[in-house]
Design brief:
Layout (H helix, E strand, L loop, with lengths): L1 H16 L5 E3 L5 E6 L11 E10 L4 E4 L7 E4 L5 H7 L7 E6 L19 E11 L1
Antiparallel strand pairs: 1-2, 2-6, 3-4, 3-5, 3-7, 6-7
Length: 132
């Protein structure tokens, strides 16, 4: 019996060492899965941020990335899709997260370029800095 208890205790310790990434589920349906915790400040909606990112459709097809444009992208958070405005505010500088964006928080029924109308999107976003 002692060996079973020891095995269960070891299993519990091992599983907590490999705990899942922290996840924020926002009221809008946006999900922020923290891949790497940052140590800097978190931006506000009216801040300008610099990020590396990769965007994919639900089927995994990449439709855009900062590397396609030569490096980090810089933009005001209040001038992008709602998913980004809401989700990036949950990331600390130096952190990386996966944003899962319901269509209503992305491009909705209009679609854009390679993104069909009513598409749920996923972005991996690394927050490099908050510009002042």
């Amino acid at each position: 019996m002692k060996s079973v208890i020891a095995l269960l205790a070891a299993s519990a310790i091992a599983s907590s060492a490999f705990a899942a990434n922290a996840v924020d589920k926002l009221p809008s349906g946006v999900v922020v899965e923290h891949i790497k915790q940052g140590t800097g400040p978190q931006p506000k909606a009216d801040d300008t941020v610099s990020v590396n990112y990769r965007g994919t459709l639900a089927n995994g097809t990449e439709f855009d990335s900062s590397s396609k444009h030569g490096g980090p992208a810089t933009f005001p958070l209040n001038r992008v899709i709602p998913c980004w405005t809401q989700g990036v505010q949950k990331i600390k500088v130096g952190g990386k997260a996966k944003l899962t964006c319901p269509a209503a928080t992305a491009y909705g029924d209009r679609g854009v370029g390679a993104i069909p109308p009513n598409s749920d999107l996923t972005f991996e976003v690394e927050l490099l800095e908050i510009k002042k």
